[in-house]
Amino acid sequence: MWIKQMILVVLGLSAGVAAAGGLFSFIVGLGVVSEFADRTHTGDCVLLYEEAIALGGIFGNLFYLFPVTIPYGQIFVPIFGVFGGIFVGCWAMTLAEILNIFPIFIRRVKLLRAIPYIIAGIAFGKGIGSLIYFWKGWG
């Protein structure tokens, strides 16, 4: 009986490591980390960024698997949410920019003057949609 459990543990850990490694290599391979470093003029910290992303994934999985009670957690949850949202938003925008989605779209539709308003509209719409989602209790 315990051999079957050990095999399941090994298979589960192997699949998790493979999936996480694929995601992290996808992030690094697309140049998201180097793009962040280029935009912020902190190219000497690229290894630190990569280590922070890997540690964030590791600790996120550990906290998911083993529920940890954090003192004053209600204070830290909104802060964590803000930083998590910033990360996901920056990742999505960098991915879209790397794939040259915006320059092609802007050239085709000829929207040169409206770019700041479009970006602000996307940000406000995303924020209001998130507020409605969590205010209604769906989240």
UniProtKB/TrEMBL annotation:
Membrane-traversing stretches: 6-33, 72-102, 114-135
Keywords recorded for this protein, A-Z = Membrane, Transmembrane, Transmembrane helix
InterPro entries, per this entry? SpoVAB
State what protein this is by name: Stage V sporulation protein AB
Lineage at the top is: Bacteria, Bacillati, Bacillota, Clostridia, Lachnospirales
